Structures are given as C-alpha cells and as structure tokens.
TrEMBL record:
It comes from Granulicella tundricola (strain ATCC BAA-1859 / DSM 23138 / MP5ACTX9). Transmembrane segments: none annotated. GO terms for cellular component: cytoplasm. This is FAD dependent oxidoreductase. It holds the Pfam family DAO.
C-alpha cells in the first residue's frame, strides 16, 4: 500500500472535516482515532455558529466569518457523500449585549415568552446545527469516500499514537498496529493533544419544550444559552448550557450544576418550568491560554501541523479550519491571516 500524503490524528469534527477537504483536493489521507470517531467534544456541543458572539476574541472574527460563508457548501458536500440532509436548526439569535451597544426595544416581539430582566438584547443573523445530526452524516460521508469512489479516506478507529518522528521530508507515525510514513502529520486531537491545550469541561442538558413555548430563536447571555432544535429527530427539544470548568478530564455530570443551568434558563423563559428533562452530559473543549485555536506548523517540526484548540467554537470553525489548513498544507495562499493562531505564540 502506498504511503499517504497526510496522516491526521483525531476523528472529531476538525479532523474529519480536514480529511474530507484534503480528499476533495485529490490527496490521500489516513485518519487515526484513539477511540471512537465523533465521540467527544464534537457531539457534546450546542451547535451555534456564533461568529458574532461579543464574547469571542476579536482576533477570531475573520476566521469565523469565513467559516459561516463556507457552511452551506460544507453541509452540501457532506450530504452528497452521505445521502443525509443536515438542516440549519435556527436562523437568528437574541444576544444579550452591554448597555452601550445597540439593542432591540422590544425583544418580546420576537419571543413573547421572554422575560429579559436587566438584559438588553440584540438580534443576530446567526444559524445553528444539531451536532449529532452533523456527526452522523460527516462520519458516513468519510466512510463513503471509499465505497463511492473506490479511493477514499482511510479511517482507523481504536488506533492510538505511540510515537511521532518528523524529519525534513516526511513524518513517521507509530501505532500498536504498525507504522506508516506521510508527507505531513496533522494534530486534531482536541483536549488530548500534546499541544499547549487543556480540557475545559462543559456540562449541559436537553429538555422537551412545552407546547406553550414553540421556540425558534436561540437565546444567549454571557452565562446561559438556550438552543432549540426545530428539524430532525430532536425537533421540539432545546439544549441548555453550559458550564466552563477547569476540571481536568473529569466528565462527571453534577446534578447541582444542571439544576443551576436550568434555573438560569427558566429565569429567561419561565415556560421552561413545564419542560420535560431529557438528558444531561459533559464534554471537554480544547482550550488555549488566549482562547484562540492553534493553526499551522510546529516551529521546530514544520511537517507536524496543528489544527487544534478551538475551545467553544469547534462546530463553527470546522469548515474554515479545513479550508485554510488544506491551503497551508498544499502551499497555496491562505485566505485568512493565520498570525493570531501561530503555534509559535506559546
């Protein structure tokens, strides 16, 4: 078997999106996943494409806007390969803003059940997806590259890395099942990366909305968000989140934290008191010290490339990350200035 052009470690949304983009460009790709694909932060997220969230770092804005512009084509490509339609769940967000920002005089005109309290809200043209729908379709798309085209992405589950040796012309990767060489290695391992990222735990819950609350708009403050599902198997539910915790690799869900999140959401939408609890869970976001992703070659090993550290914006940034990292790997001019995301900043 010929050696691949690229080896990607990590089969979350960043790793698989990059694999699809490289494959679309004609490259041969192997994806190594230590456990089960799409089983960690990628499916624990709420799915907001929050490019204009005022709490995002300013340096993230250009990359985020490129990503939202790429999203329709990104979903279409996945749907073409998987046969699964991935709808946008919402098209607008009521965002709590500071007193000096522009705000709606009457947000209740959009969501009559809203009790703003001291919050002022602006209306953002912002969409969301259901990460569980996206994960299923993306994984199917990756697997179908081999069935449909006879030449496809080689996804190897339950295959952890044991050693990486980067030389001037290639990278050697060793696993318990053997070793392989490639032109480049790309680290998409999320919170489990040896890169300067750390796990940032988030707990959240899902509820079934009462008939008195046919919510179609995301509601978000600095402390809480409520994200309705409007299409697909989870239609009629809402996702409420999320905590932000430095708790290492602990994935335990604490009832007191879930009750606190639910109470904060119910203060904004009192009808949520009648909502039925469905489930709660926790995920580990890969965070950096400045809350910006790490994109680019390692300063000491240029064939070791990082695409990691997306913190709360992995779903949002997946298409743009795949696009710009593929451009970088193939020696093209990159559409976004990657200086703010340079691995050498740490």
């Amino acid at each position: 078997m010929a050696e691949p052009d690229y080896v990607i470690a990590g089969a979350g949304i960043i790793g698989l999106s990059l694999a699809l983009e490289l494959h679309r460009r004609g490259a041969s790709v192997v994806v190594l996943e230590a456990g089960t694909p799409m089983a960690q932060a990628s499916t624990a997220a709420a799915g907001m494409l929050a490019a204009d969230d005022p709490h995002n770092p300013i340096a993230l804005h250009a990359l985020a806007k490129v990503s939202t512009s790429l999203y329709p084509g990104f979903l279409d490509h996945i749907s073409d390969l998987s046969g699964v339609r991935i709808p946008f769940q919402t098209a607008s967000t009521l965002q709590a803003v500071s007193p000096d920002a522009d705000f709606l005089s009457d947000p209740k005109a959009l969501v009559p059940q809203l009790e703003p309290g001291s919050h002022r809200f602006s209306l953002l043209d912002e969409r969301s997806v259901d990460p569980r729908q996206l994960a299923e379709a993306l994984l199917m798309a990756v697997r179908n590259t081999r069935k449909i085209e006879g030449r496809g992405i080689d996804l190897r589950e339950n295959t952890p890395l044991t050693r990486i040796a980067a030389g001037p012309a290639s990278v050697r990767v060793e696993t318990p099942a053997g070793s392989l060489s490639a032109g480049y290695f790309v680290d998409c391992m999320g919170a489990w990366s040896p890169a300067p990222v750390a796990p940032r735990k988030g707990q959240m819950l899902a509820v079934t909305l009462p008939k008195s609350l046919p919510l179609k708009t995301v509601i978000r403050t600095e402390k809480i968000y409520i994200v309705p599902r409007t299409d697909g198997p989870n239609a009629g539910r809402a996702i409420i989140g999320a905590t932000v915790e430095n708790a290492g690799y602990d994935l335990k869900v604490h009832p007191v934290d879930i009750l606190t999140l639910n109470a904060q959401a119910t203060a904004l939408l009192p009808e949520l008191a009648e909502a039925l609890f469905v489930e709660s869970w926790a995920g580990l976001r890969p965070a950096t010290r400045d809350d910006l992703p790490i994109l680019g070659p390692s300063p000491r090993q240029p064939r070791y490339v990082l695409a990691n550290g997306h913190f709360r914006n992995g779903i949002l940034l997946a298409p743009a990350t795949a696009h710009v990292v593929a451009q970088l790997l193939m020696g093209e001019n990159v559409d976004v200035d990657l200086a703010p995301f340079d691995p050498g900043r740490f």
